[in-house]
Amino acid sequence: MVLESLVGPLSAEAKPIRMFWFGILFSSIAVILSLWIFKEQSSLIMVFLTVFACIPLLYKTIKYEEKKDDLVIKESKLLKEHGRALSYLMFLFLGFIVSLSLWYIFLPAELTQTLFSAQLSTIRSINSQIVGNFFHGSFFGQIFSNNVKVLLFCIFFSFFYGAGAIFILTWNASVISGAIGTFVRNNLGDYAGSLGLIKIAGYFHIFTFGFLKYMTHGVFEIAAYFAGGLAGGIISVAVIRHEVETKEFRRVLFDSIDLIILAVVLLVVAAFIEVYITPSLF
Question: Which residue range(s) make up the domain with 124?
Fold first, then answer.
């Protein structure tokens, strides 16, 4: 009851950057407990424990955002209101990324392989699909279609399980962290050999480089998934309130459709950046 009582949607909207530190706190406690109690299954248990800490916040957020549909008439203003929720949820996600990446980097290699075993298997599977298929046109279509599938999962999970989309997003955070951690560890040896271990400040630029490599396009993807999760959750709350035949429900439905359209646009931007911009920068 402690973690889920620390923050609510109102306080999160007031200071969204605080959610970055809550993301670090939630995920770090999950890592410690999963390694301590469920070591062999820790790669999934840490995701579940992080999700458990976030579910009350996500559930309250969805209910709060659905209520805004009754209070705000102008659609542009309503999207701006939803943007406040998206901003603090993004900070929460970034907290997950930074925390789990640092755990990956600084834990002993043996523990890292255990803690991120499922994530590393997923990364290998993704890389095997990409190799040999880097014609820009087909690669863009593959990236976009895969991201749309994740978006649909977020919508459906939120509709059927309320705050269920947070599971998919937390899992994605752990996979991205595994990719960033692998990138940093693979490059640390070369950097230490060329500049020497005494130049510790140089290590931070490797982490920053790895973080930007995956989050330059990733920030648009995650914003899209959160928007889809909010859309599915808002519809779910409206259905529970038995508003299906009413004018209010139609407003909620149109609002959710706007969020889904926004999510698809963000995924187009993310795929474009990942295919055409990220490779030239990194």
Answer: 3-281
What is the DSSP code (8-state) at residue 134? -
In sequence order, the 6+-apart residues with CB closer than 8 A to the CB of 34 are 41, 42, 45, 46, 49, 115
Give the helix ranges, DSSP H, for the chain: 9-14, 18-37, 42-71, 75-106, 109-115, 117-130, 136-161, 165-195, 201-240, 247-272, 278-281
Q: Work out how many domains the chain is built from and give that number.
A: 1
Q: Are 92 and 229 in contact, with CB atoms under 8 Å apart? A: no
Among the listed residues 138, 137, 148, 143, the one whose alpha carbon sits nearest the alpha carbon of residue 264:
148
| pTM of this prediction exceeds 0.85 | yes
Neighbours of 263 (CB within 10 A): 25
Per-residue pLDDT of 103-119, as tens digits, reads: 998 899 899 999 999 99
Token pair of 107, please?
């834990």
